[in-house]
Design goal:
About 65% of the residues lie in helices and about 5% in strands. The protein has a two-stranded antiparallel sheet.
Length: about 100
């Protein structure tokens, strides 16, 4: 993806996850860094199976590759990860449609 497409994916992923009730936040309750949001989008893109994508997000979070929390210093749980994947899936689908044109 180009830098513009990355920025669009980040903004859209933030909006969709917030609307789904699973905002992408860091352990302090602030918005997760753009790099972490883009990493989540890429993990969902890489894994076509929702459960595999949720597991990949969880593993990245546990390994410190991304820093996501559902509250003040509360790591996200499996259900939160699944809901993130469902919320981000339309971002991935739109990017795939644009790429196939």
């Amino acid at each position: 993806m180009s830098a513009l497409e990355d920025r669009h994916a980040i903004a859209t992923a933030r909006e969709l996850t917030y609307a789904a009730g699973v905002p992408l936040r860091d352990r302090y309750g602030f918005a997760a860094p753009d790099e972490d949001v883009l990493a989540v989008v890429r993990l969902v893109t890489e894994h076509t199976d929702d459960e595999a994508a949720a597991n990949a997000i969880g593993a990245a979070n546990m390994l410190g590759e991304v820093e996501l929390a559902s509250g003040s210093d509360t790591p996200i749980d499996e259900e939160y990860e699944r809901r993130i994947v469902v919320a981000v899936r339309p971002v991935v689908a739109a990017a795939e449609r644009r790429a196939s044109r």
